[in-house]
Inverse folding.
């Protein structure tokens, strides 16, 4: 898996190549601006060395344009890089709406991945080429960081919170996957492989690996029935709690007067911190499930709430 000494990690996405171009150009600019300074330093040290009969009289000429230029030109160049890098950074904050969402749970010292169709894997992550993939990540213990060098992306993974990162692989292959946040004794071996496959081979892999497991949405539906959510949330519960059907993506009016979009973060918060955002018109009676459900179960419930749109939860 470790391909020996590598001067530059393999690049397997458009984003990775853009990051390389940015780093390369920035490196070139730094050389361009600093090399003359060091060359001239050497030259002057040699030319005006002690004992050499050189003309040491200060030449009394001033050129305001020359003096301004060596502040203005580097400044302008740096601003170009600032705008360029900000563009790439913002791009990372906006996964495409059609991205395939994979749930990631980190723990000392492994990565657990859960595909929307049900397949689960540990340390290896299989994805299809050419499809945007969004990783929604949380930690079961300490802070980790999921680093995919070939995609040039890295994001901290925190306990009790969800963070995400996304990429679109543009060539097949096997690439390293690492933890990039020191997280304890076995941090150095906390990693695996990112396996990018052709869509056809990925479909075969998915079919061979779901092992009859329930998809996250199916597990979520089961949890909803078995955990007593229905006692409050079903229509039959006489309006004790709002119906969850078709909730995902709508705007929710909260008791404190604010309005929030019912996105994934909102659904998770509703389970972990139900009283942090109480829906207008209801009493804050929902218990917190922070100590009942682990990240896997919360991900399953969220997956179910996302897909139950329109159909009545039973
Ligand atoms: C004791 C009753 C009760 C139980 C049990 C309960 N809830 Fe709730 N839930 C509420 C009430 C009341 C609200 C609205 C007030 C609020 O936002 O806290 C709510 C709000 C929510 C919301 C936000 C809904 C919106 O329209 O903004 C979600 C999502 C949710 N619950 C999911 C669940 C899930 C999933 C379960 C089971 C694991 C569950 N609830 C169990 C009473 C309950
Ligand atoms: Cu780690």
């Amino acid at each position: 898996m470790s391909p020996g000494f590598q001067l530059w990690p393999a690049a397997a996405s458009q984003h990775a190549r853009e990051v390389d171009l940015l780093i390369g150009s920035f490196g070139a600019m730094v050389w361009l601006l600093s090399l003359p300074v060091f060359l001239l330093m050497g030259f002057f040290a040699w030319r005006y060395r002690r004992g050499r009969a050189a003309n040491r009289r200060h030449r009394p000429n001033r050129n305001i344009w020359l003096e301004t230029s060596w502040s203005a030109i580097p400044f302008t160049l740096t601003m170009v890089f600032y705008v360029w890098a900000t563009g790439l950074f913002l791009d990372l904050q906006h996964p495409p709406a059609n991205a395939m969402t994979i749930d990631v749970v980190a723990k000392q010292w492994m990565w657990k991945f859960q595909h929307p169709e049900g397949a689960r894997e540990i340390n290896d992550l299989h994805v299809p080429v050419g499809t945007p993939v969004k990783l929604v990540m949380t930690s079961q213990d300490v802070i980790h960081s999921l680093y995919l060098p070939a995609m040039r992306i890295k994001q901290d993974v925190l306990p009790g919170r969800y963070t995400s990162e996304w990429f679109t692989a543009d060539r097949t292959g096997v690439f390293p996957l690492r933890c990039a946040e020191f997280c304890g004794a076995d941090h150095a071996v906390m990693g695996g492989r990112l396996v990018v496959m052709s869509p056809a081979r990925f479909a075969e892999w998915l079919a061979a690996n779901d092992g009859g497991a329930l998809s996250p949405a199916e597990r979520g539906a089961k949890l909803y029935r078995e955990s007593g959510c229905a006692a409050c949330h079903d229509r039959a519960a006489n309006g004790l709690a709002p119906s969850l059907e078709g909730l995902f993506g709508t705007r929710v009016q909260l008791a404190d007067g604010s309005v929030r979009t019912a996105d994934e973060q909102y659904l998770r918060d509703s389970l972990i911190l139900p009283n942090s955002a109480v829906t207008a018109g209801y009493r804050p009676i929902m218990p917190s499930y922070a100590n009942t459900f682990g990240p896997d179960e919360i991900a399953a419930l969220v997956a179910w709430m996302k897909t139950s749109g329109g159909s009545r939860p039973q």
